[in-house]
Amino acid sequence: MTSIDLNADLGEGFGRWRLTDDERLLSVVTSANVACGFHAGDAVTMRRVCELAAERGVRIGAQVSYRDLAGFGRRAMDVPPAELAAEVAYQIGALEVFARAAGARVAYVKPHGALYNRVVHDEEQAAAVVDGVLLADAALPVLGLPGSRLLVLAGKAGLPVVTEAFADRAYTDAGTLVPRTLEGAVVTDPDAVVERSLALARSGEVVSRSGRRIEVRARSLCLHGDTPGAVELARRVREGLEASGVLVEAFA
Asked: Which of 4, 7, 60, 217 could make an SS bond with 201 (beta carbons 3.0 to 4.6 A apart)?
């Protein structure tokens, strides 16, 4: 049976401000990318999300980012490699405290926003992220875009790698994500998102922004928690996958 992991970005709040509906999304997804305080999230939020995820048997992942609360981690930044590696390890370590307190562990690492897109091509920044993961835990899987420099370097360093696809983001012909600054970068039509999810899970393909069918082999499927109607959309995606015979489960 075909199977796929369903992940979402969670814990994206700060203080009294909350962006993601963590409790309801955790009833749908199998992996939670938890903001670690650099693009969103704070100690109370991280602890709460880890407790909720542990209660529901949802895998906890550290979503590491550039230090950019004001820009939600989506602004391009130039961070020296040694500094970036230390900050990646710092974020993983902070989340691990709350995961352990909840009776779980940080199970993987996924970059967020501008850092995620940067390490697709940037060798130096990708190597810094890998160094940070190794510093925190040399056995942690790394989640990323198929063919990215991040996954190539993580694999060479002995870290498990997990390929990821996006049901609600537009793709270029090269298999990368269309920048959010361009129109149509985010797919908002629920029927289209469900259809793309099924194609990614069953055939490993997605239609690019220009209309080309491209290969995107992925073990995990991401839905953004900050998308309007994210909970209902996630439910529809999961129901559609299961109805078509796809097993939704955390990646091995």
From this structure: 4
